[in-house]
Amino acid sequence: MAFFMAFLPPAPHLSHMEHVALHKTPGDVPPLQAMRRAEAEDAGRIFDHLLRLSVEDRSLRFCGAVREPTLRRQAENVAAGYPAGLLACSPEPGAPVRGMIEIARIGAWAEVALSVEPDWRGAGLAPRMMLAAARWARLRGIHVLEALTLPENGAMRGLGRKMGARSRMDDGMIRQMFDVDMLLRDELGPLPLEGGAHPVGPVAHLASVSNHRPADLRRAAA
Questions:
Q1: Which end of the chain is more exposed for a tag (fewer CB within 10 A), N or C?
Q2: CA 185 to CA 190: how far, in whole Å?
Q3: Which residues contact 188 (CB under 8 A, 6 or more apart)?
């Protein structure tokens, strides 16, 4: 899985698809509302957010080309609660979604995917979303977040290096493993676990998300 940040014209040593983050400060980007959980009425806003990404960005996000029906189905899934979605919304009327991290729980671990619109990139939103996902995970007793990304996605690889992820090649892709406790090591006090069991979700639902491959589905079903 992948997230997208603003990119410079490709240097000779870079792949034409490798994205490089511009250096910005928070004052260089528009304001965002506090991050919140996706809700049922957010399906249209999430779909619009995915449509505002370029074709190349969406290919990096989904690790391959996707059509609008797939984007709409994914938006509806996130709005329905699986995968869980944490949304960064702008304070404009209607609160458009400008950034999102999706969290798909698969047994004892969870897979994450990030997307950020161009004007909101480069000022630290992606690390903040990853920390928010880590808090979500720790509340549920999950200690590992994984992101599956294409080798040419320099932005996601850079995020992994910055946040201490362990990386390995996996069938031509890069699997990054983020330690939840390490990400939250500077936060005071242990978080209580949420009560009750949290369903993993049916294997058929996982199959509707293009990033989940057969090996992942077998683990989820175990």
A1: C
A2: 10
A3: none
Positive or negative torsion for Cα 23, 124, 130, 7: negative
Q: Judging by beta carbons within 10 Å of its beta carbon (0-12, 13-18, 19+), is residue 55 exposed, middle or buried?
A: exposed
Nearest CA to 56 out of 20, 17, 22 is that of: 17
Return the C-alpha torsion angle 163, 63, 11, 128, nearest 10: -30
Residue 29 neighbours by CB under 8 Å, 6+ apart? 119, 120, 121, 122, 123, 125
Rounded to two decimals, what is the model's pTM?
Answer: 0.75
List of E strands, the chain: 36-37, 84-89, 97-106, 109-116, 144-149, 166-170, 173-179
Q: Closest Cα partner for 22 from 41, 9, 36, 32?
A: 9
Q: pLDDT digit string (tens) for 123-138?
A: 789 999 999 999 999 9
At 104, is the secondary structure helix, strand, or coil? strand
